[in-house]
Design goal:
alpha+beta, Aminopeptidase, 13-stranded mixed β-sheet, 11 helices, globular
């Protein structure tokens, strides 16, 4: 297994012609992940956290290090352990396992082989494939865009869901969404982001203001009719997918809307993202891993995500196997049929 300290070094190595039987596959993986490679290059500068990159056969593992609270599922209890995370060093749903194969069994086998070569505690986060123990992490929610406009999207909803959103839109009728110019992400915007992170259940990485000013993305701020800054949204288009990356707003006090309703403010923010994605022709809108009920009621479908923990010490690893299921997210159990035509929509996106 090859190890690299920068994503640039990994990319250069994968591009070299002498990489034998896996060269074509590795080059393809790099090509398909160009947008994320640019993100990783920036994160090495603005969020250094022990990033390391591994190539095992024809798969690439993106890793970073953090202090993980193993008792985060228990209120008021803390047990922090130095951990290598296989995932992107930023709180988005993208997996840190990069591969081309569609054979889950073969991919699982290769990842488990790679894990045996890593020392200490390693946690695979946001995997798209299941591992032994079937531990789940927060699901991801994706909006599949088949609409020609926002009005069509609203009209194709079942009446109860449309009525709920119309109420939210009426509550937010004085809100304006204005694009923030590159480099103009202010301290006020950042305080709203910090508010989100302070109330997050599982905060792993807190980004610096420099990230928001330097990352090539779209940032929109939300203001009320008096010009008060209430919130912001950060989005990034990669290929045919629009990614909702981060936002900031406070649940109470000065950044609720003029009617004092932070839930309506958040719904208006999500609806703005959907409108933006529809109007710009994206096929998919990746809405992220939080607020399951709210996003499912907007017509998103659920993508299950999995985690797996392994320790190089066989005794500790045996304990982890016995605790299998303790760390698993319980998920959201209620199904929602949001659209009139697509009666087959379920909570996991099946037809």
């Amino acid at each position: 297994m090859e190890k690299f300290l920068t994503i640039g070094a990994l990319v250069d190595w994968c591009g070299e012609a002498h990489q034998a039987s896996f060269s074509v596959t590795l080059k393809r993986i790099v090509e398909e992940n160009k947008g994320y490679i640019n993100l990783l290059e920036l994160l090495e500068e603005v969020n250094p956290c022990g990033q390391e990159y591994y190539v095992h056969k024809d798969i690439i593992l993106i890793t970073y290090k953090c202090e993980l609270n193993l008792l985060s599922f228990r209120k008021n209890l803390t047990l922090k352990v130095g951990t290598r995370m296989i995932g992107l060093p930023i709180s988005i749903s993208r997996s840190g396992i990069w591969a081309c194969t569609e054979d889950d069994g073969e991919l699982r086998k290769k990842v488990l082989e790679a894990l045996t070569k890593l020392k200490g505690l390693t946690v695979v986060l946001n995997s798209d494939i299941e591992f032994p123990g079937q531990n789940r992490t927060l699901s991801n929610f994706v909006f599949r865009n088949r609409f020609t406009g926002f009005d069509q999207y609203m009209q194709e909803m079942r009446s109860s869901y449309r009525r709920h959103l119309m109420i939210a839109l009426q509550k937010g009728d004085d809100l304006s969404f204005n694009k923030v110019s590159p480099g103009h992400f202010t301290g006020q915007h950042y305080q709203l982001y910090q508010s989100i992170m302070e109330r997050a259940d599982y905060p792993l990485e807190v980004l610096s203001p420099e990230f928001f000013n330097r990352y090539n993305s779209e940032v929109f701020e939300t203001r009320d009719s008096t010009g008060r800054l209430l919130a912001f949204i950060q989005m990034k288009g990669i290929g045919d997918t629009l990614h909702f990356m981060f936002c900031g707003f406070k649940r109470e006090g000065k950044t609720t809307d003029s009617k004092g309703d932070s839930a309506a403010l958040y719904q208006n923010m999500l609806l703005f993202i959907i409108r933006h994605g529809i109007e710009n022709g994206y096929k998919l809108i990746n809405m992220g891993q939080t607020s399951a009920e709210t996003k499912l009621k907007l017509g998103c479908v659920e993508e299950k995500k999995y985690l797996y923990a392994r320790h190089s010490n066989p005794v500790i690893d045996a304990v982890l196997r016995r605790l299998s299921g303790v760390f698993s997210d319980k998920g959201y159990s209620i199904g929602h049929k949001v659209f009139k035509i697509d009666e087959g929509f379920t909570r996991n996106g099946a037809y």
